Amino acid sequence: MNKAVLVTGGAGYIGSHTTVELLEAGHQVVILDNLCNANREVFNRIEQITGNAPIFIQGDIRNSLTLDLVMQLYPIHTVIHFAGLKAVGESGQQPLNYYENNVHGTIVLCQAMQRAGIKRLIFSSSATVYGEEAPVPYIETLPRGKTSNPYGTSKSMVEQVLTDLYKADPEWSIVLLRYFNPIGAHDSGLIGEDPRGIPNNLMPYIAQVAIGRLQQLSIFGSDYPTQDGTCERDYLHVVDLAIGHLKSMQALDSAGIHIYNLGTGQPVSVLSMVKTFEEVTQQPLPYRITDRRAGDLAAFWADASKAENELGWKAERTLKQMIEDTWRWQSNNPNGYER
Ligand code: NAD
Ligand code: UFG
Fold first, then answer.
1. Helical segments of 214-269, H only
2. Deepest of 91, 202, 236, 313, by most Cβ within 10 A of its Cβ?
């Protein structure tokens, strides 16, 4: 077997799209996922798209024996680390669970990598690490700021852990990718976002209202200091984000901590997302305006020029494509991967 990429959390939303891009670029992929937020059906779909199957090991990143075994069995050269918990609200109710999965889990993973002599890591970080008071657009030279929930704090803590790891052992090369708001789906309509229970995030909520699984969207606040009063975010297509991981592998060729924002640089308001979704899909989208959601910031978007200048990466897919692809996935799979 040629050298392989270990993708933790590769059965999830962003991990599955990245796996497709890796396989299509000719990489061998080994996925480690405990399936706590994923469905095995995703592997059939990845195979349908690429004609190739990743190796799948069901297991937990917090289990060092599993990690040692995986790293002994397969010639891993790089780890792309998606595995973790990501629901902001839930993180406030279950902080220990979030710190255990996201922070402790990453430490256990890095210890196993150290034992195996693998020192190339790409980590899924988030725009949330810029904190509550950072000026927009967010740029990588800003310091990390005060986060408002345990999920965001866990991402910031992991960034610190990885920075200290590199300081202690400068042979490591580590990429911290700060994602803005990934939405959309593969254009085959075969893989996409399949949240369990009621979605927390805007796009899957909209898609489930449009398909009739949910009655009405609540827009959280219309009195923000933005153009139309609703919050603005930087939504990027999940396939562009996946490609960003492949492009960022080149940064691993030099040791260091390499930080990149992955976003489009364009803010879009909640209300304009709703209107554009209705126009593109011709589906009515009932909504009402409700109170603000605790912890939401008015507006943030990326300065993504560093990724463009250093990696040659730029988000290319339009908002229309993001919506079309979301809608194709949702209408072909009204119940997600549960047929
Ligand atoms: P996801 O929940 O779809 O994928 C995460 C995957 O990790 C799931 O398949 C889950 O089963 C697996 N997993 C969780 N804990 C695990 C553990 N302890 N051991 C093994 N597997 C485990 O989430 P996603 O949207 O694909 O996000 C991937 C990563 O990107 C996460 O780290 C997330 O925090 C980060 N991120 C996501 C967003 C977003 O908006 N989706 C934004 C910024 C950062
Ligand atoms: N929103 C609604 N109604 C909903 C859901 C969301 O009005 O039912 C609004 C929110 O108030 C916010 C916007 O839509 O203004 C986007 O909300 P999301 O929950 O989709 O995304 P967030 O920007 O709150 O957070 C997301 C991820 C975080 C990550 C952050 C930055 O959930 O994990 O992007 O990457 F940190």
1. 238-248
2. 236
Determine, yes or no, domain membership for 157.
yes
Question: Does a structural domain hold residue 11?
Answer: yes
Which pLDDT tens digit goes with each residue over 111-127? 999 999 999 999 999 99
Whether 287 is covered by a domain: the verdict is no
Of 99, 130, 151, 205, the active-site residue reads: 151
Ligand 1 centroid to 182 CA: how many Å? 12
> Residues near ligand 1 with C-beta < 6 Å?
8-9, 11-15, 33-38, 60-62, 82-86, 101, 105, 124, 126, 179, 181-182
d(CA 122, CA 137): 23
Q: How many domains does the chain have?
A: 1
Contacts with 14 (C-beta within 8 Å, 6 or more apart), sequence order: 82, 124, 179, 182, 238, 241, 242
151 among known catalytic residues: yes
Q: Mind listing the pLDDT tens digit for each residue in 144-188?
A: 999 999 999 999 999 999 999 999 999 999 999 999 999 999 999
Assigned domain for 208 exists: no
Q: Is the pLDDT of residue 1 over 90?
A: no
| pLDDT on residue 2 | 72
Residue from 201, 208, 220 whose mutation best tests the ligand 2 pocket (most atoms within 8 A of CB): 201
User: Which CATH number is 118's domain given?
Assistant: 3.40.50.720
Within 8 A by CB and 6+ apart from 73, the residues are: none
Domain containing 31: what range?
A: 4-183+236-263+301-312
Cβ contact 139:300 at 8 Å: no
**Ligand 2 centroid to residue 274 C-alpha, Å:** 14
Closest-lying ligand 2 atom to the alpha carbon of residue 230: 15
Mean pLDDT (the chain) is: 97
